[in-house]
MarR family transcriptional regulator
Amino acid sequence: MDTNPGYLLADNSRLLRRAFDERVREAGVTAPQARLLLNLERHPGRNQAFYAERLEIEPITLCRMVDRMEEAGLVERRADPDDRRARLLHLTVRSRGKIARIRAALDGLIETMLAGFDAEEEAVFMAMLERVSTNLSAPSKELAANG
C-alpha cells in the first residue's frame, strides 16, 4: 500500500468519481448532468457561465449539455430580468424526481464509502478532510490576494 497521502487522496478521488458515475447512471443521467442538477438545486437561477465555472467545463460544453437536458425536460432557460441577452437556468418539476433518485444513489455511495466507520471515526475523518481542504485552499487565496 502506498503511504503517500497525495497519491492516496488522488486514487480515492478516482475511485469515488467512478462509483459516482456508475450510481448516477442508474438514476438515468450522466455524471456531468447529475452535477449540474445538484448545482442548480443548491444555486438556482444563475447564468450558464456560473455553472460552467462550478463544473469546471467550457461554457460551450455546458451549453450543449443544457440543450439536451432542456429537450429532455430537466432544465429550463428563462430570460434574465437584468440582462436581456442572458438566460438563467432553472430546474423543472421533472428534474425534481431525477434529483431525488440521484440523492438516493449518492446516499448509498456514502454508506459504502464509510462502511466500517463508527460515528466518532466519521467525525474525525470529516474534520481531517475539512482541514486538508482548508490547507489546499489557503495558498491559492494568498496568491490571489498578493498577485
About this structure: The CA atoms of residues 97 and 132 lie 34 Å apart. The longest helix spans residues 119-146. The chain has six helices and two strands. Helices lie at 5-26, 31-42, 48-55, 59-71, 93-113, 119-146.
